[in-house]
Amino acid sequence: MKQAITIDDTILHFQHVRKTSEQICSLLQTEDYVVQPVAEVSPPKWHLGHTTWFFETFLLKVYAPHYKEFDPTYNYVFNSYYESIGARVIRTDRGNLSRPTVQDIYRYRRYVDEAMVTFMQENASNAKIIDLIILGVNHEQQHQELLYTDIKYILGHNPLLPAYQTDYPRNLSTSEKEEMIVVKEGIYEIGYRGDGFCWDNELGRHKVYLAQFEISSMLVTNGQYLEFMEDGGYQNFNHWHAEGWDWIKQQHLVSPLYWHYIDGQWMHYTFRGLEPVHTDTPVCHVSYFEAYAFAAWKGMRLPTEFEWEVASPNFDWGLRWEWTESAYLPYPHFSKAPGALGEYNGKFMVNQHVLRGASEVTPIGHSRNTYRNFFQTNQRWQFTGIRLAR
Amino acid sequence: MKQAITIDDTILHFQHVRKTSEQICSLLQTEDYVVQPVAEVSPPKWHLGHTTWFFETFLLKVYAPHYKEFDPTYNYVFNSYYESIGARVIRTDRGNLSRPTVQDIYRYRRYVDEAMVTFMQENASNAKIIDLIILGVNHEQQHQELLYTDIKYILGHNPLLPAYQTDYPRNLSTSEKEEMIVVKEGIYEIGYRGDGFCWDNELGRHKVYLAQFEISSMLVTNGQYLEFMEDGGYQNFNHWHAEGWDWIKQQHLVSPLYWHYIDGQWMHYTFRGLEPVHTDTPVCHVSYFEAYAFAAWKGMRLPTEFEWEVASPNFDWGLRWEWTESAYLPYPHFSKAPGALGEYNGKFMVNQHVLRGASEVTPIGHSRNTYRNFFQTNQRWQFTGIRLAR
Amino acid sequence: MKQAITIDDTILHFQHVRKTSEQICSLLQTEDYVVQPVAEVSPPKWHLGHTTWFFETFLLKVYAPHYKEFDPTYNYVFNSYYESIGARVIRTDRGNLSRPTVQDIYRYRRYVDEAMVTFMQENASNAKIIDLIILGVNHEQQHQELLYTDIKYILGHNPLLPAYQTDYPRNLSTSEKEEMIVVKEGIYEIGYRGDGFCWDNELGRHKVYLAQFEISSMLVTNGQYLEFMEDGGYQNFNHWHAEGWDWIKQQHLVSPLYWHYIDGQWMHYTFRGLEPVHTDTPVCHVSYFEAYAFAAWKGMRLPTEFEWEVASPNFDWGLRWEWTESAYLPYPHFSKAPGALGEYNGKFMVNQHVLRGASEVTPIGHSRNTYRNFFQTNQRWQFTGIRLAR
Amino acid sequence: MKQAITIDDTILHFQHVRKTSEQICSLLQTEDYVVQPVAEVSPPKWHLGHTTWFFETFLLKVYAPHYKEFDPTYNYVFNSYYESIGARVIRTDRGNLSRPTVQDIYRYRRYVDEAMVTFMQENASNAKIIDLIILGVNHEQQHQELLYTDIKYILGHNPLLPAYQTDYPRNLSTSEKEEMIVVKEGIYEIGYRGDGFCWDNELGRHKVYLAQFEISSMLVTNGQYLEFMEDGGYQNFNHWHAEGWDWIKQQHLVSPLYWHYIDGQWMHYTFRGLEPVHTDTPVCHVSYFEAYAFAAWKGMRLPTEFEWEVASPNFDWGLRWEWTESAYLPYPHFSKAPGALGEYNGKFMVNQHVLRGASEVTPIGHSRNTYRNFFQTNQRWQFTGIRLAR
């Protein structure tokens, strides 16, 4: 029997998630909140404002009749990509905004959080509103993961290479034995089933036919990836997609992101600062192009997202987002929600690849084996890794 | 019983295809052979040279011991994308080459054709060589389709809008009744089966599970597409992928390629010159983004390539290449051929969408319902169209 | 008789200038110090660091034997364009640096200032060193002007349009009567004469022949510029250089920088925030292209830098940097200083135009009628204005 | 006493110039007329059409009442940059036009030439019209020089490096003794004086004061330039403008245009094909940036255009266009002609440098020592050279 979730539970969960975002940022200097070194990175203060704007825009301004907007200019500043909600700062300009200040944004968070608590208490039994709040909380958890990735990029591309946290826990390698797990041919069901929260892109549970396949119990390690590099992996076009090859040549890439070859040794930037690459840690910060090339070099391939989902109960996952061979496409009978929230996932279902799993910076409780993450095939600032199949 | 194909049949077929390429160009002025108005269009003379280089490079220079290369500089000029074969003119520079002249290239064709006939006679019973010749012939047929599309682009973007052929046959609409064909749920086999020629990307026949679906017996017409345009289809972001929306806004697109709104009427450039848009002709020259948006506006969707292949015996096809919802990915157990010919298809299997069918300019005998064409999602200079599913 | 400048005077002057830079920034929020909205704007904290680095690099590290560098990574961060001094952050990346923090940089300033005072006392009678200090002080004054212009750009391009200082003094119009001052034909001497400080590009005093000309006693006002705008000045190519015309069309420019047409009225961003355009204030933030077009529309022209220098004793100047018709070229017998300081001016003497005068944000004591400022012809974020000649 | 020029002389001169343009092209293949490898190069057929359009547009369509335009679409195709005359093919698209064909354009030339001869006979005594014809003839001569430079670029950038004319005469070095010619301080007059043809930018004869200077009797040779290269001239930023340095680094330039280092030897493409660099021939195809850097390396400088004009009677010139230190600016009292012809020179007087002299491909009779040519400081496809001063 499903246990009832009370409104007090929801309020506590809301407050916990809201506080966690701020804790992630608590190690930053004010200046670290502001910058945007590349288009895909957003300034931390923007994340803090945008997640707040989400609650204000989709809940308070719509359903709380007496709510007074904190500042009307914020709608322009903190809208990410919702065409329905009006004009917005273009994405590449987020790092040009010194105002609102960090302090302004924390004030904004306080203001909205207080209004939200009152609002939740007043709407304790409104299922539709509770669902929207849960959506907002999950949205903020997604941005917590982005906060970690963006902070790593900001500090890891600063010439001073400052640590985020000198005693940040080391990412241990999994203890599993490396073996190929065999999954039998058959018709399997794919997609979310249950009555908890999930994203619209996981819905539309449906059947797929899978031929028999094998999938590794382990993620590819830095040590294995170094073998690929040392075998000339970045110099042999045979392993690469044409587009991937052009990209690595144009960008002069010869290693994963954050790796530096210094005095005869491969080092990489971590949250603890610069340190030697550990060979038995799962490789991280590789693009789909690199994951594909590595697999081709190994004479294997990446799993499809369907294979991954079916096999996932048989291996540990959650350290790295894992690239799949699957392009990001709608499931059968996918339908967009009406209104602005319909812009959440559907409009990005083209020219991206699916990642499955979760990563070391994914918030606890924010992962499922039906979760579909997605990025362009050249992105590597996320905590992405590789699992092989054949 | 399969009838034996003799070497004389092969020689005749070779000669027929080689001649057809030249016939397609016979209506051109010398100047038309030279220009490259956009990166994806190649000059006609480049196609004539490149298809010849293909036979010279992959057959004569490898297997004909006494063959003397026509001109060593041509390898640099006519290599398209084969990294294995060495350096090459970058794609965007093909239109900067006034030499070799058209006459030089026809001379090159004569030279290679004569060598090929002798070579074929000497290798009449060498199955591997015959297979390579068949491959080269199919390769040239692909370039015949490209010749038509590129010639249309060259003439259709000239301010004088010259006709290619004033009596070029009009593309009739299909006579079929418009209805939704129902295909039952089931496991189906996908991919080429037989002993004729097919491309490597069609191989690896495999099972897929399909839920029940419906697919239109007819292609979307210009008239239907005009309704979409007149209903503000290009002004409403809800129908579009985010990337498609950015693209049409940046390019200021409001109609298919070659359409011009003149004195209150929609005209389009055809091989006959500029003429009014016929409402009952299948719409042509739309990108995947536009096909997707049209389907979304209709409350329907595009078929997957698997649905298309399964349903295809039940409808007429062959007037337009038809966009599918499927990203271009390898079939299970896809493997690249060894050597340079392995670069033919596999390295392009990312960030493109599959088209199925064939078009009015596809050479006769060069279509199958397992044929997989593919282009980037914003390309529209091919003879592409739309078929709806749900 | 020239009065002797004692070392104490120099120390006081040094300290005054150093303090002034910090006072300019004292009205900023921490976040305002960090951002770089366009390539030509540098973050205020970068200016504060770079001017300090200048003293550290060209004085302390060279001439103070026991000086211990504050932080060796700063050389990479704060080098502006000195090739001789080694690698540096590329200009467009200055806004991506959250570290060193603002506080770090103030600490750096304290550290270097203290070392400098001791150093000055120890070298009180070393004329070469005193000259270098004076150079560094003038260099910092130049950056004070840039601080104002960059701060205005940062705040004036923020969607919240925050004021820099709500009671910032209004820029009064000059009280002069508008008249054309006649200067007679003759041979005049151009360039700096005296024994005070000047830049190398002012030296090489030399003769020029000037035909008789007339020059306005007044700067062009906003009101006059509005007449140009209302007469279709930005729509008529006849007034413009071809390059200027292409630029305003591509950038969609119809007014000076910071002007906004709101509810039927021209407003502009000032240090006090957004306010209506005053018609009798000198027009500001126009490019050379616009200054030229305005003059052409008036049937007049801009003065050459030689005409300006000769006529300058006869009119008030100092509110706006004034565009001249003269390209920025070396004076006869111009020679670069040896070493890195030789990179100061000479290497920029191409494809820029000369501005003469000074502006409302030029530090007091930092202007001369022989001073040659220079910018690319499309730059307008400086406090630039227009004076007509014929 | 000035001898009268009869209308028959003018007709003969017109016909001679028109024929010369076609003779320059007579060595080309049809394909060579069509291509545009870089934006600044125009296809030869465009030059042939544009110079014809000039006579049609500015004379026949304005002053010949019964003239029937050859083809109204040509106005769009062959307008170069005249905003007054309406829309035009953008410059970078000239190489995308296969139509009108070369034959069409020769037909156009015939048609306009015949109309012009009749028109000239009918207007034998109309001084204004005769002046316009002389202008058109000089305009065509300018394009003859461009035909040579553009043809050299087209053939010299083809991977086959075809010769333009295998027996094209070798450019001899001047026989002068190398010496520094001294010109005394004084007031000199600059600009065209006389009653022959000159361009508007040469008019406004005016006085300049020149200090004493020295100028070389000889152009810099390939041998001298090689010394600069071998002394690391392209690797030492001290010799270069900042903008020039960035440009050579970005473009990876280490030599003049058309130079190739092959098997340990410097070769260059000439109209005769590829051949070794002659050390005693004047260096050619250098940009202003390179000319400046060479002079800086030599411890000398380039002459100003005024110095050049004053000194020019004392040395041989005409083999190379010679870069000067002078930016291209209007002479005092420069005024644009009314109407479209006013766009001829004035609107380009910004961000370019002046060249003086003439080159080996300048038409005979088309040079004067007051002639002002001008190009952007990074252009080097013209026959440009270097003369030193101090």
In short:
Chains A, B, C, D: Residues 14-145 form the DinB-like domain. The structure is a homotetramer of 390-residue chains. Helices cover 34% and strands 13% of the residues of chain A.
List the helices and strands and how they pair.
Four copies of one chain form a homotetramer.
Chain A: H1 7-25, H2 44-63, H3 74-78, H4 102-122, H5 127-156, E1 180-183, E2 186-190, E3 206-210, E4 213-216, H6 222-230, H7 242-251, E5 259-262, E6 265-270, E7 273-276, H8 288-297, H9 305-311, E8 321-327, E9 353-357, E10 373-375, E11 384-385
Parallel strand pairs in A: 8-11
Antiparallel strand pairs in A: 1-4, 2-3, 5-6, 6-7, 8-9, 9-10
Helix pairs in contact in A: 1-4, 1-5, 2-4, 2-5
Described by strand count, sense and barrel closure, the largest sheet of chain A is: 4 strands, mixed
Per CATH, which architecture of the largest domain in chain A? Alpha-Beta Complex
End-to-end CA span of chain A? 40 Å
Task: Give the proportion of residues in helices of chain A.
Answer: 25-40%
Instruction: List SSEs of chain A in N-to-C order.
Output: HHHHHEEEEHHEEEHHEEEE
Q: What is the total tally of β strands of chain A?
A: 11
Rg of chain A, Cα atoms, Å: 22 Å
The count of domains of chain A is 2
CATH topology of the largest domain in chain A: paralog of FGE (formylglycine-generating enzyme)
Pfam families (chains A, B, C, D): DinB_2, FGE-sulfatase
Keywords (chains A, B, C, D): Iron, Oxidoreductase
Domain Sulfatase-modifying factor enzyme-like (chains A, B, C, D): 177-312
Protein name (chains A, B, C, D): Sulfatase maturase
